[in-house]
């Protein structure tokens, strides 16, 4: 198990390094030279920037100092607003995004799994069709479609909930639903499939042959085993919800990291984009790593194995 | 009260698939005496497993269905076919236990084996967790798991196939059931392990006095354990009798075929093994006459038109074949089949 | 005792042979096609998809406008006989722009899937074929790439390469093939070891026969299923990028940017949001329904 965790950690670090290097290479290959043809910058600011990025030094020295900065969580300053550091922006916007993301993942996992379980237990009956319909709508109408529609119909037309902004609790419902929906649908679908798969396993027959109640068979044997494959997609779910937030925060004008990221993209704030990209990537790589380790902890076949696999 | 622990009468089981209704079991009747070991033999798909799962009421409904008119009288009083699911839960595991074919998949991979044994005890005998654990350790010792105190907290993947099957036996016998159903318990195991598991089962049967239904297609296993044999073909019983009846005086051409297709140590000559040609009929549309007629070298016109009744050979031995009809021509039975007992 | 006339005890003449299989046997593909046709949702997906494709081809030409001509006299017109989906704030015809968006969506979806497929089959095939060291190294590379967040990398690439159809396709292909490569390799390796392949070989089947009759039908099914889901994935990625302003260059229309534009003005001109949204949802829906149907039809393990 220890080897398993170690292996995951090493892979995480390598992946992160690849990404950091990738951003560095990209910085140097941006369309045109952002430093050359930027009229917005004053000479002083340009000088500061050049010095910050050490553009007058050989490329591997630049790379070295870049790595050093990243490792010490120094993502530099905004390209468009030289008075703002990337770190400032992150500390300002991250809590909002984290809150929204949290809500979304909780809603997606809890409702998605419940729906999946109910669907599987009522295979080919009403609830099963409800879950299947949710799953279909989930893929057919991703956040960028369902978000504006919810905002328009529930926010503007019906006026039940605020169509945008991020103030009181009632403001948080539509963005949460929008962000959670796709993942919720995937969760419901995966859980349903997984449950139906487990129900046909021999060990469920064994459990029934012991005379356990239906309830005990479902809760102690079926759900527990059906959850295992779900844990593996939890990492993907976190990734989807994080990137989905780019769109959702845009739609509902939520002052989070995603909205700021998209803004930086539209205004070509390169340093901001690089810093945020690395932050995002680190976040997601860690999330994937955690779910992998979590899976190892929960599945005794992996937890108790001495080997690495 | 009769001497039978189980009386299966006209059991019919169907599965509703998209291709149509599969008549997997088409009117099976047999009895099982207390303390007796009965083997049900037949090739894959003959309905032997479905029969055993119907007795445990483990057939998933839908798509499966135990047809009206079937009766499974357990212990002289309860008709299992008519019990509610709730009532059935009280019988399963306490009065009857079951062992499945593949020990690699029949244990829950995420639950300690001690708990898997204890579950039934807690439910049926109201034991505390601690007491159930003690009993689980005792059961593990009984089925020959070394170091049961240490092993009780292990997970299934830490056991070998043979050891897992021992655990399965421990689960099935934990509550001292009156009936143990073993569905091909040794098929998935190595030959050497097979013998150990069979020894264990025979040993435990002597100790506990449980009746056993053994589902198998291995006639060697039958001779080893069973006192009586039911031969099934295409969802029906074609012949039943004592082991001696079936091995030395078989009456049904299908049984002859079975006997000729397995090696026999008690025949000193090096007889060639003769397979039964052809494949079993499609049970979505079972044939009108005898299901075996299409593959039967002795088939007569009547066999294709009408299903034969059960003919008694002696008190405990019967077969369903037109050859046993008084008007039927006498055919020479192949000599390899119980030749010395002929006539 | 059943009464039977004695003449019935004559030996029967076996009409058919004993190996007669009662149910008609179908080839793998014929059976898959039959199952797909029986699947109502998949059929629906296929029909909608065909309609969308037809409209993507002819849609822009049955209205006398193009996607970029601005007409200040006809700004923000609600859907009607002149402009079936209305016009935008520059007086451009929405009907034409939406179908151009669909064209781009379908084009990117199909090309991306084809690229994923090609790279994935090559990489996975080479990895599985050579095995050993080569396989080891190639798999380590894949494991690292798998850890990279897809969208983030695509966004980075788009930043560097600038917006446009071509760059989107390159960016998507650069990241998208990994899953396919893993799938292909896994299929190849497991199929190589399958007992039925060994059985076929033992029976003296030639390598070509094994490849044609065993490996391809079994691997291809799963690969086709994967491709059908890659297409809507790429379509979604394009819409996502265009929505956040990184995708298709204006004035060209993309469903993602149309939805975004529509969202800005939905209070006054809701049709500008609804038209592209509905069409986009239909694309996603039909591809996914078709993919589900194909999975049920092609996955041999689900066959009964």
UniProtKB/TrEMBL annotation, chain A:
Its main location: membrane. SUPFAM superfamilies: MetI-like. Residues 94-295 form the ABC transmembrane type-1 domain. The keyword Transmembrane helix applies. GO terms for cellular component: plasma membrane. CDD domains: TM_PBP2. Pfam families: BPD_transp_1 (PF00528), BPD_transp_1_N (PF19300). This is Oligopeptide transport system permease protein. It comes from Tumebacillus permanentifrigoris. The lineage of its organism: Bacteria, Bacillati, Bacillota, Bacilli, Bacillales.
From TrEMBL, chain B:
InterPro entries: AAA+_ATPase, ABC_Ni/Peptide_Import, ABC_transporter-like_ATP-bd, ABC_transporter-like_CS, Oligopep_ABC_C, P-loop_NTPase. The keyword Translocase does not apply. It comes from the Bacteria. It is a peripheral membrane protein. GO terms for molecular function: ATP binding; ATP hydrolysis activity. GO terms for cellular component: plasma membrane. PROSITE patterns: ABC_TRANSPORTER_1, ABC_TRANSPORTER_2. One of its GO terms (biological process) is peptide transport. PANTHER family: DIPEPTIDE TRANSPORT ATP-BINDING PROTEIN DPPD (PTHR43297:SF2), OLIGOPEPTIDE TRANSPORT ATP-BINDING PROTEIN APPD (PTHR43297). This is Oligopeptide transport system ATP-binding protein.
UniProtKB/TrEMBL annotation, chain C:
PROSITE patterns: ABC_TM1. Keywords: Cell membrane, Membrane, Transmembrane, Transmembrane helix, Transport. It is found in: Cell membrane. The keyword rRNA-binding does not apply. The chain crosses the membrane at residues 41-62, 104-129, 141-159, 165-184, 222-248, 269-290. Residues 102-291 form the ABC transmembrane type-1 domain. One of its GO terms (biological process) is transmembrane transport. The keyword DNA repair does not apply. Pfam families: BPD_transp_1, OppC_N. Its main location: membrane. CDD domains: TM_PBP2. It is a multi-pass membrane protein. Signal peptide: none annotated. Belongs to the binding-protein-dependent transport system permease family. This is Oligopeptide transport system permease protein. It comes from Tumebacillus permanentifrigoris.
